[in-house]
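User: Predict the complex.
Assistant: Input components as received:
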Amino acid sequence: KNEVEQSPQNLTAQEGEFITINCSYSVGISALHWLQQHPGGGIVSLFMLSSGKKKHGRLIATINIQEKHSSLHITASHPRDSAVYICAVHTGNQFYFGTGTSLTVIP
Amino acid sequence: GAVVSQHPSRVICKSGTSVKIECRSLDFQATTMFWYRQFPKKSLMLMATSNEGSKATYEQGVEKDKFLINHASLTLSTLTVTSAHPEDSSFYICSAPTQGSGGGYTFGSGTRLTVV
């Protein structure tokens, strides 16, 4: 069993839809990261969370430490949001990564 | 904010040659750098941890002589893939702890290596 599980693995949405990607983890963490990987491979760090909620533009990330769960929300999705979204947790000693959620937003 | 600049973003090399990937911390000192590898449709996997001025720590199964890591300064860590083979084709990414940001980590943008 992976230390970090993401769902769904693949997601197709119509432009404008509200999108949620979920991440559950089984280890104690000091922080959780959401990463965005574009088709060309480049990775962008979207959020680092240790508690609560963060918002940046149309992106919202939440974390529930007690439930060991985080969600990434995208409001008013756009085709340029199409990418792989990766959840990563840091235990204080090392990172564990989810396998990613491949999002395709159709115009 | 803190940035880790990773170069090159893409490289194609011939089998048997060596390729160097650089990660530079901009506006902060990276005493530690993590190096990851990603196989297609797989998670990022930690390869090694480099520390400035000392030998890198490699994860089990990672060949030290094949993946040479140098962390000679507080702002530069390099990964050299020696005698590259097609099976080394992968996506390589680095990350560094970011001082003064509450324990955050900054990721490089990654390097897509293709060995032909």
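DSSP finds no helices and eleven strands in chain A.
Let me know if you want any component modeled separately.
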